[in-house]
Amino acid sequence: METTTIDARGLSCPQPVVETKRVLDKISGGRVEVLVDTVTSRENVLRFGANKGWKGSFEPEGAGFKVVLEK
């Protein structure tokens, strides 16, 4: 499965969701990893992915989080 990585660290909301939407609009499935550095961004990206039918999870990544969306 191909993995697409989005580095949204340092971006304030709603930019991480906008970047995630840009990628999800182009693909029908796979694995997308979104790097974020705030809990708010993590939760917003997870919620957006779930609303689009993607299964979401996250793990700590440095000082932030890696949100993983899979479909």
Plain-language structure description:
The chain is α+β, with helices and mostly antiparallel strands and 71 residues long. It is built from two helices and four strands. The chain has a four-stranded mixed beta sheet with strand order 1-2-4-3, with helices on one face. A hairpin with a 2-residue loop joins strand 3 and strand 4. 27% of the residues are buried.
Tell me the helix content.
25-40%
Radius of gyration: 11 Å
Largest sheet: 4 strands, mixed
Class by alpha and beta content: alpha+beta
Major sheet: arrangement of strands = 1-2-4-3
Shape: globular
SS strand fraction:
35-45%
Low-confidence stretches: none
Secondary-structure topology with pairs:
Elements: E1 3-7, H1 15-24, E2 31-36, H2 39-51, E3 55-61, E4 64-70
Parallel strand pairs: 1-2
Antiparallel strand pairs: 2-4, 3-4
Descriptive tags:
71 residues; 2 helices; 4 strands
Task: Give the gist of this structure.
With 71 residues, the protein is an alpha+beta fold.
